Amino acid sequence: xxxxxxxxIGTIVLLLLYRMIFQxxxxxxxxxxxxxxxxxxxxGSSYAFTQMNLIFVISIIAVAAxxxxxxxxxxxxxxxxxxxxx
Length: 86
Hints:
Layout (H helix, E strand, L loop, with lengths): L1 H20 L7 H17 L1 H6 L1 H25 L8
């Protein structure tokens, strides 16, 4: 079970970093907020992972929190619905 958690946490971190660096968070705001929440829950709930390296766990949670806050700001700024065609 621990190896699954490591793979899952690494996959979500890489996906968020890819969207942060290459897509500049222009798309997928709702999905990024959900991924950030899942990442925080998985990282905080895995006891062996938190005991392994606390600084690494704190940095992962910080990236997830930053991603969630920034995506919520962009989501509210852009409006809840895309612009309609005129």
